[in-house]
Amino acid sequence: MTARGIETYFDIEPVEDAMLETPVPVVDLDVAERNIRRWQARCDQLGLANRPHVKTHKLTGLARFQMDVGARGICVQKLGEAEVMADAGISDILMTFNVVGAPKLKRLAALARRTSISLVADNAEVVAGIGAAGRSAGREIDILVECETGAGRNGVQSPLKARELALLIDRTEGARYSGLMTYPATGTRTAAAAILTEARDLIADAGLETHVVSTGGSPEMWSDEGLGVATEYRAGTYVYFDRSLIATGACTHSDCALMVRTTVVSVPTEDRAILDAGSKALTSDLIGLQDFGCVPDLEDARVYKLNEEHGYLDISGTDRKPKVGDVLDVLPNHACPVSNLFDRVALSQGGKLLGLTRVDARGLVW
Amino acid sequence: MTARGIETYFDIEPVEDAMLETPVPVVDLDVAERNIRRWQARCDQLGLANRPHVKTHKLTGLARFQMDVGARGICVQKLGEAEVMADAGISDILMTFNVVGAPKLKRLAALARRTSISLVADNAEVVAGIGAAGRSAGREIDILVECETGAGRNGVQSPLKARELALLIDRTEGARYSGLMTYPATGTRTAAAAILTEARDLIADAGLETHVVSTGGSPEMWSDEGLGVATEYRAGTYVYFDRSLIATGACTHSDCALMVRTTVVSVPTEDRAILDAGSKALTSDLIGLQDFGCVPDLEDARVYKLNEEHGYLDISGTDRKPKVGDVLDVLPNHACPVSNLFDRVALSQGGKLLGLTRVDARGLVW
């Protein structure tokens, strides 16, 4: 399907530029659209199914746009995100997080009745739960076996264990083995590919077909390394990019679509300005970086400290001293948890503020 | 006023224990009530007005309970919090953050028409804005001069500058000078008291009365140091306490009222369990600590890493290995930004889960 203008995917409450309150994330739809199309083109070229992770933006509008540009489906990290995305009409949803516990399995069964949801598992308890949910929904729920490939997070610990779990899934009524999934740590894609290939071949020898081999990650999205075995790619942050992805080389400043608009509320000394964005707007995520964000329009200034509502800007190194009332856009270290802090984000297009839209997949939903 | 039972201050949606989904903050109302009453008793004993900072809990129910137990008023950090608290019937509100910009000043004027809101300022632009809002509201808005006393954040930089700003406020129609405010850094209360005393005396010499000298901070709330000059105290985190305040000696584990309930979703190795609470539930706040929280029921385990939805638990040092499906309560490093992440928190009393209540002052409001 050819996507309509990206702005038509959102319910927008118009706001004049001068009346936009800070702190607030502002998403440049032109940049986001370029990022989405460029990544889709690369996936098409590689013959990889594109399954964007919507945890980054939590916006049904952007998810539907990603689908219309060519995504195979979406990836979510929790049931609440899946429910909201299903409500918005997205029918191919992979949840890359173990579902555990009676209340969540009940919700999973309800979701499975109305949409195509698939899941991951790395242990027998999760497989049993998903199977029960599938039986309750009257269908088989697809499960990818999550494999440890170097990140030291979830995942079965060897190709043999992957085969064992695939066979268990195959024996579990209400569940269907559909493939393998990993989130590779940076620099481990070749090693990950070897593990996934071995697991796939072992599972084939056992008589099961691996339809999907799902890998992901924005930091190394442009690298071809170890992609041979993969059938699909999950990237999330690429929609907005952020300061951490500039550091990994995945993008440049001009690719960053989400900035947190702030106001200078105090300039108590020549060396320091205080912004109205602290850890409740920018988060304390450092992910290996120095400082809690940067101000592209004030390159020599440093966001060196945050309190909950205060951002500390070191202006000792800049000649252009900000004044109280100045509006400064801060590029956050990590875009994903910023989206999670705000009930609404602002959208801009063609250099013009369109207004505010609701971050519809955040909040009440676990 | 004698407060009613604390649980009656909340709209509660009942939830059975087995149906409570994770991750979710659970507030022990017995512990919170004990913290609130103990701190009120100390303020009464010292003759200090108690002005709790509601940014910690963002719950109108707890704020109204704090008022009924004896608080003089409340403290907020942004207009949205003030608006919601005013809607809940709280009429004495101090906002300890510079108000800047036309949209916020318009909201301030509307608030000033219907409640007693006072503010802080550390610069002339903020005074001018508040004065204009006061004139628009047809009343004088009280302003405390924020003083730098060692924290290196906001504040006028000397007692002479405090006098200068107090006189400016006095000359500004729509504004009234009412006193001094500081947020002292840990270990600076004696130095802060000297600065505040000098400022107060200079301002008295200039013919203005300082009605309020407001200090605050939970880390040193039990210390008498430098309190002589203060007329009121702002503490926020003391309602819940947290891991960081155990580290400062302000509380013990048994004083901590907010825990994040999590579920073990994977035990991929003998050394590692994965919880369903990551930085989107616990925040990345370290505030000087090692690890991202602790599990009091599993003392030898360490929350050594977070991703957005994954919490990494090092279980190599414990003999009681958790299993998939186990529910573990995590004590967060910093309670305040955790409240800010959840639209609802669970309440318990007498060891029994009461249900969920809305965090009514978070979210849409800046």
TrEMBL record, chains A, B:
D-serine dehydratase-like domain ranges (all copies): 257-349
Alphabetical list of SUPFAM superfamilies matching this protein: PLP-binding barrel
Record keyword Magnesium present: no
GO molecular function, one term: D-serine ammonia-lyase activity
Domain of life: Bacteria
InterPro entries for the chain: Ala_racemase_N (IPR001608), D-amino_acid_metab_enzyme (IPR051466), D-ser_dehydrat-like_dom (IPR026956), D-ser_dehydrat-like_sf (IPR042208), PLP-binding_barrel (IPR029066)
One Pfam family recorded for the sequence: Ala_racemase_N
Keywords for this protein: Lyase
SMART domains, per database record: D-ser_dehydrat
Keyword Lyase: yes
One biological process term in Gene Ontology: D-serine catabolic process
Family designation: Belongs to the DSD1 family.
Name of the protein described by the UniProt record: D-serine deaminase, pyridoxal phosphate-dependent
Upper lineage: Bacteria, Pseudomonadati, Pseudomonadota, Alphaproteobacteria, Rhodobacterales
